[in-house]
């Protein structure tokens, strides 16, 4: 609300995908946000729950029907992840855009509405050398050769709620008969392979294949 104090009217954008599943940017949350903003004496000119907020072009097309409501808003509030928020920045180059959410991570949905962080998108995958379990993400220290001295009965020293990634890697490599590889020392990671901030043009790759 502190950030919004200089603006009077807002258009709200959620997301039908992760933000809806997480209960942070679906229809009920858009309605709550609208209520909270109106309680401050401000106006909500409209709301949209796009199919996929991070899909900039798709969201832009879906917003066409809300052209007037968007034009009437002083600012946009996005109730999805940082990617969805930045879609709105591209769609509304002349309007302030504010995120309502703190995006935590890219997660695998392991059960309905339960997200587990498995990959940090490092650009140089080493899963072939770690039994398919990622220590860059699964170990809080990101150790490439573990476990560290703090592992305790299969738990991580950082928190007993975390299974030590390197114990998991060992157990899996043992089970899959890969322990010879487990003994090999992994080289320091080549962080120049990290492509952040990246643009991925899969269209170009398809054209190169032709
Ligand atoms: S090694 Fe890198 S790309 Fe592979 S799973 Fe881990 S973070 Fe993701
Ligand atoms: S106990 Fe295991 S998961 Fe935790 S920091 Fe050490 S190696 Fe990483």
List keywords for this structure.
two-stranded antiparallel ribbon, 210 residues, Rossmann fold, 9 helices, 2 domains, 6 strands, binds iron/sulfur cluster
Question: How would you characterize this protein structure?
Answer:
By secondary structure, the protein is α/β, with parallel strands linked by helices. The protein folds into 2 domains: 9-99, Rossmann fold (3-Layer(aba) Sandwich); 107-193, no CATH class. It is built from 9 helices and 6 strands, in the order E-H-H-E-H-H-E-H-E-E-E-H-H-H-H. The strands form 2 sheets. A 4-stranded parallel sheet has the order 2-1-3-4, sandwiched between helices. Strands 5-6 form a two-stranded antiparallel sheet. Helix 5 links the parallel strand 3 (75-78) and strand 4. Helix 3 crosses helix 5 (82-91). 22% of the residues are buried. The mean pLDDT is 93. One iron/sulfur cluster (SF4) is lined by residues 139-141, 143, 146-148, 150-151, 156-158, 164-166.
């Amino acid at each position: 609300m502190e950030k919004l104090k200089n603006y009077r009217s807002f258009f709200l954008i959620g997301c039908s995908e992760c933000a809806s599943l997480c209960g942070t940017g679906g229809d009920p949350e858009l309605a709550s946000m609208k209520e909270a903003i109106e309680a401050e004496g401000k106006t909500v000119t409209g709301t949209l729950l796009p199919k996929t907020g991070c899909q900039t072009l798709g969201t832009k097309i879906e917003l066409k029907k809300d052209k007037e409501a968007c034009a009437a808003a002083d600012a946009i509030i996005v109730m999805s992840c940082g990617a969805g928020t930045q879609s709105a920045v591209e769609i509304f180059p002349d309007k302030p855009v504010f995120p309502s959410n703190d995006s935590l991570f890219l997660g695998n949905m392991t059960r309905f509405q339960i997200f587990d962080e498995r990959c940090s998108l490092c650009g140089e995958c080493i899963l072939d050398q770690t039994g398919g379990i990622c220590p860059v993400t699964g170990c809080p220290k990101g150790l490439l050769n573990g476990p560290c001295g703090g592992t305790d009965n299969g738990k991580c020293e950082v928190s007993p709620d975390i299974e030590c990634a390197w114990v998991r890697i060992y157990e899996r490599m043992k089970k899959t008969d890969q322990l010879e590889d487990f003994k090999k020392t992994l080289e320091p990671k080549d962080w120049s392979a990290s492509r952040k901030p990246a643009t991925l043009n899969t269209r170009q790759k398809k054209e190169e294949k032709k």
